[in-house]
Write a structure and sequence with these properties.
This protein has 447 residues and is of the alpha/beta class. The strands form three sheets. A six-stranded parallel beta sheet has the order 3-2-1-4-5-6, with helices on both faces. A six-stranded parallel beta sheet has the order 11-10-9-12-13-14. The chain has a two-stranded parallel ribbon with strand order 7-8. It has 14 helices and 14 strands. The longest helix has 32 residues. Helix 5 links the parallel strand 4 and strand 5. It folds into two domains: 215 residues, Rossmann fold, CATH 3.40.50; 216 residues, Rossmann fold, CATH 3.40.50. The termini are far apart.
Amino acid sequence: MADSTRSSHLEKFLQKARDRQLVAGVVGLGYVGLPLAQLFTSRGIRVLGLDIDAAKINKLMKGESYIRHFPNAVIQGMRQGDQFTATADFSQVSKADTISICVPTPLDNTRQPDLTAVRETAKSLVPHLRAGQLVILESTTYPGTTTEVVVPIIEQSGLKIGEELFVGYSPEREDPGNPDFSARTIPKVVGANDPSSRQALESFYSGVFDSIVPVSSSEAAEMAKILENIYRCVNIALVNELKMLCQRMGLNIWEVIDAAKTKPFGFQAFYPGPGLGGHCIPVDPFYLSWKAREFDFTTRFIELAGEVNTDMPYEVVNRLAEGLSDRKTALRGAKILALGLAYKKNVDDCRESPAIKILKILADRGAEISYFDPYVTGYVSHRYGGLPGREVGELTAAELANADAALILTDHDCFDCDFIVEHSKMVLDTRNATGKVKNGREKIVQG
């Protein structure tokens, strides 16, 4: 009887996938979920978007975007022909054939994994699940989350995993603002722990992405995502440490990296900065370190990289204090104009942005702060725990001249670095944004 039930539900799902008749549900319509929903609609799949933020739902249903690099026209295109509907009503989940969970997985105040959003989402799904659905966790997390956290909750629906309900893990690989890669062209890793779930997951996503990368289990897929981000974390920590050494040696780390990357093999360039930002890279090392302790294993190398990157905002502030001191100015009471709040160039995403931490450290040390970021206008300070200082509406020569130092924290392409250097008393550049500036280089301090 079990075999026949499994075959019936799986075959119906696979047939819907072949006929492109599936309705895709996406829970969490942020920087990951919204691009995924857009990809589904572009592939002719009807999408049901769910989010607990009523303001987001209202904007989407009016054809408006709340992500800068995701224009209104894209949302309006998704809405044509009722291909995309957004709601906060989780009872609508029963209408979806697939449910992709794209919710935040941050760290708590003690740098422990905070899976509250994952747990609450799974609980919200339970009353509305039905046989024949596929549930996919997309959020970046530690190996074992799908099996140990999500599955026990959704089993409360009474549906049997692998027979009546299919469950898998497929990590997001979004790179907001990167014009070279779209969601569709980035290979999609997929993993599940039973043959039916694996088949359902592979069948669905192979019809959406240009290529999929199947692995043997949800744990393997979860670990693959962690590895991708820890690889970057460790290498960024390496160049951050080398940057501090080069500063003491009177060398330019960016010049050194540019020379090294001319080697056509065995080297990949990574660049230093004021610290790590975004949702994944600053978080993932701590997720894996936490999980590793369950196996009596200490990830010493990974933890050291995390410590180096976590310390970078303090190094930036110390470097700024030194630069001001050389100009007979104390940091306490100095007027600092911070340029850029986003964690990377040309986006409006401030999650885990080192700029936010740096501004708070500067405020604690008595600096008078103002900040400017054309991508993050009208900054919602309560969302990020409060932001000290004054927001600058326009970057004028007078604003720059009034500051004791301009502090470049994000290298947006729209920043006119020649203009910034010309009108500033001092520029601390943490991104090498002023690397091509010729005049006024005596004002520039490498951050």
